[in-house]
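User: I'll paste a sequence; please echo it back and then give the predicted structure.

Assistant: Echoing your sequence first, then the prediction.
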Amino acid sequence: MTIRMRITLLVMLTFVAIAAIGGYAMYQSRGSAVEVKSVTEGVMPSVLASSDLMGQLKDVQLAAMVMVTETDNQLVVQENEKLAQKKAVLEKALEQQAKQADGVAQRGLIEQARESLDNYFSAIDNTAKFKLAGKNEIAQAQFFGGVMQYQTELEGIVNTLRIEKNRFKDNAIASLNGKLSQTTTTISIVTAVAVVLLGGLGFLLYRQITGPISRMSSMMGEIAASQDFTRRLPVQRMDEVGHSIVAFNGMVEKIEGASAQIRQKTADMQAMLQNIPQGILTIVDGNKIHPEYSAFLETVFETSDIAGRDLMDLVFAGTNLGADTLSQIEAIGGACIGEDVMNFAFNEHLMVGEVEKTLAGGVKKILDLSWSPITDDNDMVIRLMLCVRDVTELRQLAAEANEQKRELEMIGEILAVAPAKFAEFISSARRFLEENEQIVHQNPEATAFAIAKLFRNMHTIKGNGRTYGLLHLANVVHDAEQHYDDLRHPETGAVWSQEYLLQQLAQVREIIDRYARINDVTLGRVANAEAAAVGAGYERHVLTIDRKHIQESLFRLENVNTTNLHEMVTVRDEMRRMLRLLGTETVQDVLAPVTDSLPALAAELGKVAPHVEIEDNGYVVHSFASPLLQNVFMHLIRNAMDHGLEGADERIAAGKPEAGSIKLEMGVMDDMFQMALSDDGRGLALHRVRQIGIEKKLISVDQVLSDAEVARLILQPGFSTRSEVTEVSGRGVGMDAVLDFVTREHGKIEIHFNDTAEGAAFRAFQIIVMLPENVAVEVDGIDVPYPVAGQEQAHPHPVHLPQGGNPQVA
């Protein structure tokens, strides 16, 4: 063989070897590319889908939480239907996972996930049934005990499946790395054999194929190990490797989005749990409180030290329960947890439903307790759930409602008795009580005569009370009467005790005085005063209430929803305002004798009868204040007629109407009921007042006083600007008498000027009478039988009743 032939043969063999090795290298490269595509487009989507399962489960859990906390049954049904759709999505996802399963382990996990999924949605359906049946507490117990258990189980299975998928992915990547390593070795051999001829081609192959694949493999491993799904592989050009990198980046982006959704849904679920307005805790073995509890529990007990504490210490320490009851409650945990649910049913009657607890700061709360068992699949109690509600305000409102009901019932009983007969009954009952008190004081020890006399008197009071239908009185009297009867029979063991007997008589007197107070003050049914008013020709419009309204109010109180705080407050406020209005009358009626006397007074003074305007701004006054207001304004209005309003000629010359005007405004300001009286006369004669003050040595000649200080002189005893005594004035007993009336009732009088003419001879002014706020009540739109503007009045002068506003006291 010639050299040329050898060379030719060698060249041919070299090219044949290169071709063979190159072909093998191309085969290896193609196989690696196929395996890369398998990993990025087969294995990775399966891993992603398993991760999506976890997000879908969190979505189901959030929807289940919404259903449990929903109060509208229609919305509960809608949420349950949505859950059924989500179940179908999960089943479809598991079916897809089954198609992509590799190995017995993955297929087994998928089968377990399917079974757990059925159990999970079965528990959700049971929760929905309880919710729709109105059994909210059982539904919550089923949710936390059943649904959450299966949720945890299913999440564990899916998580295990995801881990198995990741393990398979890691194996696939490892296999891919092995094949890539083999391809690299082959290419290195080709490069070594044909270093001169194929060096550039080898470098190109490495640059085009091996380098990107190696980098992609390395970064895939790093991302898988660090779980940092924010990283992306760089794409240099769009060949087969570039397309695989793009697909891989897209999958990582989806994983990142799914992870963000899971985090958000988890945060939403935690926020919902933290904002449930109810204290919820679970009790584990040893009567310890589980670390997971609702945030509202810290508000109820005013402490954050809850997790891990002993139930008896947190809930029942400082309560009004006895030692035996506390021992029974303490034994409940051991008797129920770890036992069949039937044990809970047997011991449920020992579980206290309400306690009064004193907290560390001295605050007392009334807590409503609701107990529920949390069971497993075998109906074994694994934990107890306790729901705690602070019902302190509800109980207080209920107590107020009961007291209002009691007063309404007493009002109804009183209204059924004629005023004269009721007054006679109260008078006789008090006489019998006084006689019994004297008997008790005079007899340190029991005597047959004393006991018999006590019994007869109390029996008479009770009989008269029942005759008139005063049942609340009869019930209290019956207890005292029964004690007297026991004293008549020594075998009962009753003992004569002056202190106890006087306490009983005090209780009877208290109820009698309350009946009398309601009759006289609240209802204004003082018979003598009424007769005197009618006899004088005035019809008094004292607000009372008929028995029909009482029955309606009692029905409202008896049927109020005691679990609805807003409804309780509304009923309480309505009843309180109605009761406050009883026994009140309008200022127009109170002052009618004064205003009706003005025409005669005007004629006596040679003046035209004035126009009287009363703006009550929706306020009425209690009848007990009527004598005071009549005494006060009798003086003030007569003074306005005598000193303030000019004669007809003088008024006409001053450009005023012939008839003067007197105005009375009223309202509540600064916790005082204020009544401001003014007129359109010449005003207060300050120079005359100052001169008289000097004459009476109330001030010195050179003493400098403001107009307000000069005006206060008219309130001094014996002060009068009249030089002669008339039938109307001049005796100096007007304003000081008014001041005395008002101050005795803890009120005061102020004089305010209506102009800014400091130092003028005459100044327009208001006299403001201020009395305690409880004198008046604001009608505020309540339908009451009072006269209003435009209706026919019991007195001839026009009266105006605007709604709202307060007197302008400048």
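The longest helix spans residues 3-69. The longest strand covers residues 364-375.
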